[in-house]
Amino acid sequence: MNTSYQVMPDLTDDEYRELKSDIQKRGVMVPIEFDEHGNVLDGHHRLKVCRELGIKEYPKVIRAGMTEEEKRLHARKLNMARRQLTREQMGELVDQQIIETPEKSDRQIAAGLGIAPNTVSNHRRDLERRAQIAHIDKSTDTLGREQPRQRKTVSIFNPTAREQKAIQNPAVIERMAEGESALTAAKQVAREEKAERKHFTLPEEIPDGTYTLYTEDIRNGLLMVADESVDYIITDPPYPREYIPLYSDLSRLAARVLKPGGSMIVMVGQSYLPEVIEQLGQAMQYHWCLSYLTPGGQSPQLWNKRTNTFWKPLLWYVKGTYSGDYIGDVVKSPPNENDKQFHEWGQSVGGMKDIIERFTDPGDIILDPFLGGGTTGVAAVQMGRKFIGSDILEANIKITDERIKEAYTNARCEE
Ligand SMILES: C[S@@+](CC[C@H](N)C(=O)[O-])C[C@H]1O[C@@H](n2cnc3c(N)ncnc32)[C@H](O)[C@@H]1O
C-alpha cells in the first residue's frame, strides 16, 4: 500500500485490534479517501482491515486534482478533526504542516488545517526557536498572488469504475469543478481531444517522405517495408476468382508490417466472400465487417446472382487487440462518385476519405499494396496522413504519382 500520505504513525497493536473488531461488527463507518490515482489519502488502517477481512465493498471518496502538498494538508486536516488524537499528536501535525510550507501565512495554514491561527503562530515560534525552520519575514498573501496557479479539486463519493477512470484526466476535473458530472465531462473532453487529434493543416510544399510508391508484386512480400512500421492497411484488391490466393499474401504482409494493435481494412466483393475471409484470417484476426454504401443510379448488376448491388463489405482485421476510437460501421461513398478515369476498378476519393477519417489520425502511416489508380494515396495525402503504395503494374505507379502531386496542390488551394 502506498503510504506517502500517512501523516500519523501506525496504530498500536491494541488500537488496531479494536478497530478491526469494530469494522467486523459495524462495517466501515468513515469513508476511505483516495486520490484519483488510487493512493490512500486517509484510512490506511481501515483499508488494511478490509483487506484482511476480505471486505470489498466499503464507503469511498475520491479527491481529484490536488497537488502533493494539498494531499498531505488534507490528510492532516482529517486527522486533526478526530477527537482521539492527543495534544502531542495534534501538535505534531501542525509542526509537519509549517515545516512543509513555511512560506505560507499562519492564517492560511490554520484555514487549511481547520484550527485557530494563534495555534499555528505558537508552533511557528517554537519551531523557529528550535531552528527547525528559518525565520520568514514575508509570507505569501491571502489572495495567493505569489502562489503557483491554484488547481481545481473535486470530490466524488463511491465512484463507479468509469467515473474513477474519468477523473484521471485533469481536463475532466476542470469541467467537474464547473458543475458537470464526471461522465458528461469525460465525454465532452474526449470529443474535444478527438477533434484536436483529427485537426491538420497541409504545409505549402508536400513534405519529403509524405508518400513512397513501389512497383511490386505482393507475392514477393514487399520486403522494402519494415516490420511493424505501418499503422493501417487500407486496400481494395482485385475481386475475380483467380486473385483469391493474393488475400493470403495480404494477410501475411499485414501480420508482418502492421504495428501491434494496427488495423487492416479490405474492400471486397461479395461473390467469393467465404474464401476471401478464410484467406485473410490466415495470419490476421477478424474484427468486424463494415458496410460501404455506393448509392446512386449506376449500381452494378450481377446477372449470375440476379442482384443489383448498392454496397460492399469492408472487412476489418487487427493485429493483436484494437484499442482505438469507436467506429461507426456504415461508410458512404458520395452518390455516383465511381470515378473510373484513373483505373477501370477505381474507387471514389470521397468514400476513401470517409474510411481514412474514421480510422486514422493525421501523421499515421497508411499502406495500400493494391494501388490501382491511387485513390487511397490521394485521399491519405490530402488528409495529412503518410502513405506507402505499391502495385504490380508500373503504369499504375506513374498515374498515382502524378495524381497525388496534383491532388495535394488542389487540397492546399482549397484550404
Ligand atoms: C481493384 S484495383 C485497385 C483500385 C484502386 N482502389 C483505385 O481506386 O484505383 C487492384 C489493383 O491490384 C493490382 N494487382 C493485381 N495483382 C497484384 C499483385 N500480385 N501484386 C500487386 N498488385 C496487384 C492491380 O494491378 C490493380 O491495380
Describe what this molecule looks like in 3D.
Helix content is 39%, strand content 17%. It is an alpha/beta fold and 415 residues long. The protein folds into two domains: 13-158, no CATH class; 211-414, Rossmann fold, CATH 3.40.50.150.
At a glance:
This protein is of the alpha/beta class. It contains 14 helices and 14 strands.
Which SSEs are present, and which pair or pack?
Blueprint: H1 13-26, E1 32-35, E2 40-42, H2 44-53, E3 60-64, H3 68-80, H4 87-100, H5 106-113, H6 117-129, E4 154-157, H7 161-166, H8 170-177, H9 182-198, E5 211-215, E6 230-235, H10 246-257, E7 258-267, H11 273-280, E8 285-293, E9 301-302, E10 307-308, E11 311-318, E12 330-332, H12 349-359, E13 365-368, H13 375-382, E14 386-391, H14 394-414
Parallel strand pairs: 1-3, 5-14, 6-7, 6-13, 8-12, 13-14
Antiparallel strand pairs: 1-2, 3-4, 7-11, 8-11, 9-10
Helix pairs in contact: 1-2, 3-4, 4-6, 5-6, 8-9, 10-11, 12-13, 13-14
Bound molecules: S-adenosylmethionine.
S-adenosylmethionine binds next to loops.
